[in-house]
């Protein structure tokens, strides 16, 4: 039997040429962007103003398999005008991560004050966290486990895909899911960080800075760099933007809690204590007892209020009066009415950092450079490889440096 003649390998360019003309690869150059930056499907599919057509569905996987180089982003900065509709894709469900998106929202208000912002997120409390940002008009909170709620997941995506955006942003420096998600939406410009886990089209890809780790500041750096601006400061701090009515309610709730306490003197400082955390950050009751035994004498004139975690169980055996609420904004208002706040690194710490209370965050496992609270009145306490007694002494020292009466 005659053996078939082996076929010569097809070079990558010919491989792409197999596709029908309607899907043939095209590269676009414009006077404002001489470097080919965009891949479109066919000439007939190009928009009337091709220089504004930034995100197109292209054969990124085929390019990778064929060994072709990745698409090059635009070399011109984002325009300072003409951005009116913005979509942020931030697929993280933790409270801390969701709050650390707020500096970018504040920066967008400053750079594009008339723009409308939409957010796609997995945070179940996103509506509460971003209620104070007037530019945020639409929040799509996707289910955290999409396989179990596929119809709802698809409905949310369809709603977002109905619109076209001037700018879509993937602010996370590491998440590959957010990058894949923004490929689903129609936009003139796509902004995000470059990296090995970041596959997909971007018109403005920014290199992750080697000297900046703060999760909250990275979003601001991303936008400023894409606009051709320098990062001359830390940018705006995280914000919740409690209303005057919410602030007054927090004061009223705290006063009501303290009114029946014989040991509380009117006008005495209040320390809001949250003794919970998640995963390896969490410490047990004995750890906290050892820390509080050293800290308590320095707080002789203070009233300590424990903020009860979501499970409704005190972490310090009900040693102090407690406050329990699942309302994020009400919890923040009570912290705002307090003098100071103390906890390990956790989501409630980031919530406290948005208030006027002096916030002290203890770091024993996670990176303080990445997750530490920043901005006026916020203090990072590095407690790596330290016993709780030594950490307590560091807390006292830091409170004194902050001018608190300890």
UniProtKB/TrEMBL annotation:
GO BP annotations, alphabetical order: lipopolysaccharide core region biosynthetic process
UniProt GO molecular function: ADP-heptose-lipopolysaccharide heptosyltransferase activity
UniProt xrefs under InterPro entries: Glyco_trans_9, LPS_LOS_Heptosyltrfase
Membrane spanning stretches: none
Keyword Nucleus: no
Record's keyword annotation contains Transferase: yes
One Pfam family from the record: Glyco_transf_9
GO cellular component terms given for this protein: cytosol
SUPFAM superfamilies: UDP-Glycosyltransferase/glycogen phosphorylase
Keywords of this entry: Glycosyltransferase, Transferase
Protein name as annotated: ADP-heptose:LPS heptosyltransferase
